[in-house]
Amino acid sequence: MHREGVQSTLKLDLLLTTKSTSMSSNGQPLYQRQLPTFTTLPRAVYARAESLAQPSGTRRHSHAWVQLTYAIQGVLEVRTNEGRFVALPKRAIWLPEQMEHEVFSSSKAEIRSLYLDVSVTGWAPSRCRVLEISPLTHELIRSFSALPTEYEMGGPAGRLVDVLLDQLREARELAFTLPWPTQPSLDVICRTMQAHLDASRTLHDWSLELGCSEKTLSRQFLAQTGLTFRAWRQRLRLFSALVPLERGDRVTDVALACGYDSTSAFIAAFRQQFGETPGELFRR
Q: What letters, b where the CB count within 10 A reaches 16 and e where it falls short, cover 199-213?
């Protein structure tokens, strides 16, 4: 397939879009997930299970409890003012209380959400994180999600919750985050790169356009995102590849659309970021 054709095809289906919206990147409406209507939790830990056949999203919102959004299947993305947080299968996104956010998912996603009262999460840092879910924690979440809403706190269900909280406390944090700059000029750069994944514009090119030195722009980018310009662009491209790969698109097509001239280079970068090759990660 011609490179421009691959790029235009991929851009239609990216989960990471250029702005928060209720529309997918191809202009089609996203399925709007319903949010819980209660204002207090029925228990200190509450579970919600969802099976979503089509790409979906929530409106921007916040709540008084901590949320753990877990992808059993599919790709999840949480957007906050600080950046984008991506969860692949067997990963989860931890959201502190009162943080405004939106949640988006790919098609055929299996989601398990845990809502946790702040009284049982005092050990957790007050920031959004992506966590690795161990096989044990996976089974604990699955089992807990099948319990009645008002389970017996003093019985086996209550003990299961204690073990689950203990496992979440020890979960390893992953660098599946795309920090987003707040400085207007850097925001424009990042949104442009997101809209044109295969563009080869360098930091030097951007410095000439913005009328500043490359050194100054590099320092600002690192201060705003914690990543170099090159590292941020690579992470953007790899994150943007997740949905089409999970859907079953050819690795070569996705690599070209994301700006890689070599499939082997794309696979190597993918393995370095996610710890697995695309084939290993999305094997059915």
A: eeeebeebbeeeeee
Dig out the tokens for 71 from the structure. Answer: 């992808």
Average pLDDT over residues 73-82: 92
Beta-carbon contacts of residue 230 (< 8 Å; ≥ 6 apart) = 203
- Number of residues that make up the chain: 284
Tokens of 111: 């989601």
> CA 82 → CA 191, 204, 225, distances in Å?
14, 26, 9
Ranges in the chain annotated CATH 2.60.120.280: 33-174
Please give the CATH topology (third level) of the domain spanning 33-174: Jelly Rolls (2.60.120)
Q: Which residue has the tokens 């073990």?
A: 163
pLDDT in the model for residue 30: 72
Locate CATH 1.10.10.60 in the chain.
3-22+181-281
| Contacts of 253 by beta carbon, 8 Å cutoff, 6+ apart | 1, 6, 9, 10, 244
What percentage of the chain reaches a pLDDT higher than 70?
89
Whose tokens are 């979906």? That residue is: 56
Q: Which CATH superfamily is domain 3-22+181-281 in?
A: Homeodomain-like (1.10.10.60)
Helix (H, G, I), strand (E, B) or coil at 96: coil
